[in-house]
Amino acid sequence: MEFNDSTTSIFEKAIEFIHQHYCEELRLGRVSKSVGVNENYLSRLFRKNAGESFNQYVANLRIEESKRLLKEGNKIIDLPEKIGYMSSVHFRRVFKKVTGVSPKVYRNSLGLDTTMKADQE
């Protein structure tokens, strides 16, 4: 697969779409339709241009956003919905896979108020 200005433009449009919609349910098919290419082609573009799969890119983006929200003092329990995860269990699993620590451990490492209620976890 050769990469030219058109290919780069497609990838950039896909990235822009993802950044605008990451807090919604986001699948490769939806993004590929938004930029007018098939899923397999967009998947290859991600591996080549981002160095990771579409799913890894979206997960990393969501976890970076959740880290930003934690720094702002948001409750852990509120994060999954804000960043596009429908399940708090899935969010915690992905957070730990990406960062190596749980959201609670990450929040505590920030040195924020540690007297937060347990229901915020």
UniProtKB/TrEMBL annotation:
InterPro entries on file: Homeodomain-like_sf, HTH_AraC, Tscrpt_reg_AraC-type_HTH
SMART domains, A to Z: HTH_ARAC
Keywords: DNA-binding, Transcription, Transcription regulation
Matching Pfam families: HTH_18
Domain HTH araC/xylS-type: 12-109
Protein origin, superkingdom: Bacteria
UniProt keyword DNA-binding, yes or no: yes
UniProt-recorded name of the protein: Helix-turn-helix transcriptional regulator
Source organism of this protein record: Paenibacillus aestuarii
Lineage: Bacteria, Bacillati, Bacillota, Bacilli, Bacillales
